[in-house]
Amino acid sequence: MFKYHNPSKIIFETGILENKKKLKEIIGDGEYCIFTYSDDVFKEYTNQIIDALGQPKLIVNNILPNPDYKNLKDICKEFSEKCENIKFAIALGGGSVIDTAKFLVLGKGNFEKTVNYLEKKVTDFNSTDIDLISIPTTAGTGSELTCWATIWDEENQRKHSLIHPSLFSKISIFDSKLTLSLPKKITIETSLDAMSHSFESIWNINSNPVSNIHARNSISLILKNLPLLIQDLKNINLREEIMRASMFAGLAFSNTKTAISHSISYPITLKYKIPHGIACSFTLPIILKSVQGLDQTCDKNIKSLFPNFEDAPNKLREFFENLNVSTNFRDYIGNANDWDLIVKDAFGGERGKNFIGSYKKVLEAQEFLGY
Ligand SMILES: NC(=O)c1ccc[n+]([C@@H]2O[C@H](COP(=O)([O-])OP(=O)(O)OC[C@H]3O[C@@H](n4cnc5c(N)ncnc54)[C@H](O)[C@@H]3O)[C@@H](O)[C@H]2O)c1
Ligand SMILES: [Fe+2]
Questions:
Q1: Domain limits of the chain?
Q2: Radius of gyration of the chain (CA)
Q3: Ligand lying closest to the C-alpha of residue 191
Q4: 197 C-alpha to center of ligand 2: Å?
Q5: pTM of the prediction?
Q6: How far does the centroid of ligand 1 lie from the alpha carbon of residue 93, in Å?
Q7: Tens digits of per-residue pLDDT, 255-287?
Q8: Which of 19, 56, 88, 198 could pair with 249 as two cysteines, CB 3.0-4.6 Å apart?
Q9: Is 40 buried (19+), middle (13-18) or exposed (0-12) by CB count in 10 A?
Q10: Tell me: the pLDDT tens digits for 213-260?
Q11: For the stretch 76-86, what's the b/e string if a residue is b when 16 or more beta carbons lie within 10 angstroms of its beta carbon?
Q12: Could you tell which of 43, 44, 68, 99 is best to mutate to test the pocket of ligand 1, judged by most ligand atoms within 8 Å of the CB?
C-alpha cells in the first residue's frame, strides 16, 4: 500500500505572465497581495501581474534570501495591518519568497502565534483561508509544490520546518521565461537543489512508486540539460527542461520530504554560509555510493539513471566537476573533525531519520571514494 497526495493545480506555460487575459482567467478576482524581491527585474514581473489583476492591497518587495525570524517580524506587522481579509497571496520568487509567503499566510501575519506553532509550543493551528498562488522564479526549491517552509533563526543557529497541510499552493504557475534572468551561479545552485530533492526522495523511507517516477524524470532531465544550460543561459528550451525537472522534483519530495544530504546541509548553511543548493547537493556522490546494495527499489532507480551501476557515484562526481562544484567537504568545512560531527548529528535530525542508509555506510563510502 502507498499513498500519494498533491492538491496544487499546475499551470506550465512559458510566457504566461505576459498574457493578461489568461493570467486573470487562471487566478480570478479578489483582494490580494504580492511577495517578491526588490531587484529591478521583479518590478517588471510585478507590473505584469498588476496589469492583469489590478492593484494589490500590499506589495512586500523586500524579501531577503533565507527567511529569518529577524526580517519576518517586520513583514508580519505590515501584513497583519493591511491583509487580514485578502483572498489570495501571490509569491513571485524563489524558495525564500514562497517560504516567507507561507509563514505570513498561515498565521495571517501573527508572528508570535506562527512561531509558537512552528516551535511546537502549540500542536493545533487552523487552516488558512488565504489562497497561496506561487510563481517560482528559480528552478528550484519545489516550495511551490510542498506544504512546508524552511524558516531560519540565524541568531540561535537554528533551522525550523513550518509544516501545515493548508500550505500547499492552490495554483503553481511555471513560466520558464522568468528564469532567463538567473545568473549562472544561482542557476547551478538551484538546479542542484532540485536534483538533491529527487535523489533524497529515492533513498527515503517514504518513497513510493509515484514519487520514484517523478524523481527519476527530474534527475535525468538535470543530468542531460544542466551542463548545456550553463553554456547557454538564455536558451529558453533548456530553461524549460530545468523548470520541468524542478517541478518533477517538487512532486517527488512533496510526498517523501528530504533525507540525509539536506540534514547535513543545514549547519553548513547556518555556520559556513554555503548556499542551500550547494550545501544540500555536494554530498550526493558519497550518499549515492553509501546506499548501493541496500534496497532493491533504490538500486533499480539508480540503474535506470546510470546504466553502469557500479560506476554511478563516479559519474555523478564527474557531473559536479563539470559544473565546477566541489564534492569534497574540505572545500566547505575545512576541518575533518567538524565534518564528522556534522554528519553524525545529521542522522539524529528530522530529515536524517528519513534516510534508508547508515552512518557506517556513509563513512565507508567516503573512504571508498577517497575523500
Ligand atoms: N519549502 C520548501 O519546500 C523548500 C525546499 C528547498 C529549499 N527551500 C528554501 O528556499 C530558499 C532558497 O530559495 P532559492 O534557492 O529559490 O533562492 P532564493 O529565493 O533565496 O533567491 C536567491 C537569489 O536569487 C535571486 N533570484 C531569484 N529568482 C531570480 C530570477 N529569476 N532572476 C534573477 N535573480 C533571481 C534573488 O533575488 C536572490 O538574491 C532557502 O531558504 C531554502 O531553505 C525551501
Ligand atoms: Fe532543498
A1: 9-177, 184-368
A2: 20
A3: 1
A4: 6
A5: 0.96
A6: 7
A7: 999 999 999 999 999 999 999 999 999 999 999
A8: 198
A9: exposed
A10: 999 999 999 999 999 999 999 999 999 999 999 999 999 999 999 999
A11: beebeebbeeb
A12: 99
